[in-house]
Amino acid sequence: MERKKKVALVTGGNSGMGKASCAALADQGFHVLLLARSREKGEAAKKDLEKVPGRSVELLLCDLADPASIKSVDAFFKEKNDTLDVLLNNAGVITLKREETKEGHELQFGVNHLGHFLLTKVLLPYMTSGSRIINVSSGAHKWGKIHFEDLSFQKGYRPFKAYGQSKLANVLFTKALAEKLLGLGITVNACHPGAVGTQMGVDRKTGFGQGLLKFLGLFFLTPEEGARTAVYLATSREVEGVSGQYFFKKKAVAPSERGQNIMLARELFKVSETLTEPYKW
């Protein structure tokens, strides 16, 4: 009897590192759930990925800025009656102008952190011992600070300040969640992919930033290179049982001082839990 394929879900799987991760995981025998906001872009990515024979890719529509859309993923898994082996929280946004999610959260914090926080909440019941969660953070977390007094930057919005906060939140979420999952056999780790040339930072409505991106791309890693550490964390036997760590170039390294603060991690987790009701851990 043929062994059933393992299942991996990749957020932001329609482009850049997410798409490269989908390809790498599919090539290693996973059935890949490509999570994307746009049906058109998602279907185009799926079609492109499946040009390679043997790859198993399925499109799952979800807007990480919309809690109702995130919660619909629960219905998808209930209908499939399946387990999830890998959750790769890869999607990310940078916005030069302040934007908001459906619930009024600043978009970078809302998508990069809260969206993935809620998605992980929704999907944890479908994970079992041996399942792995990977949160794609960034070296930008080092300049980040959690502004509990104004998480959504209602006053004094600066794009990279907001981005740094969201990426520090990824590291802290990883630390707090690892503590919560202790003894269950489910691991969670964060990673810094390096400077990768992707569409992140290009205005989704106007395309502003494409020219600069094309120039900077000469100095960036390719999406395939950037995806290596995340894919390593998703598949390698070398990290079996390893949890709560921050990786760069397939090695566990120390995050910033704030990123190592368990009290800060617990406080952010508590606040995030309040902001993503009604789901409980």
Structural commentary:
It is a single chain. The chain is globular. With 281 residues, it is of the alpha/beta class. α3 packs parallel to α4, α4 (107-123) runs parallel beside α5 and α5 crosses α8 (262-275). It has an 8-stranded mixed beta sheet with strand order 3-2-1-4-5-6-7-8, with helices on both faces. β4 (86-89), α4 (107-123) and β5 (132-136) form a beta-alpha-beta unit. The chain has a single domain, classed as Rossmann fold, CATH 3.40.50. It has 8 helices and 8 strands, in the order βαβαβαβαβαβααββα. It has helices at 16-27, 39-49, 67-80, 107-123, 159-180, 210-216, 223-235, 262-275; strands at residues 7-11, 31-36, 56-61, 86-89, 132-136, 187-192, 246-248, 251-253. The chain is 39% helix and 14% strand.
Number of domains: 1
What composes the largest sheet? 8 strands, mixed
CATH topology: Rossmann fold
Distance between the termini: 36 Å
Q: Judging from the principal axes of the Cα atoms, what is the shape?
A: globular
The computed structural class is: alpha/beta
Per CATH, which architecture?
A: 3-Layer(aba) Sandwich
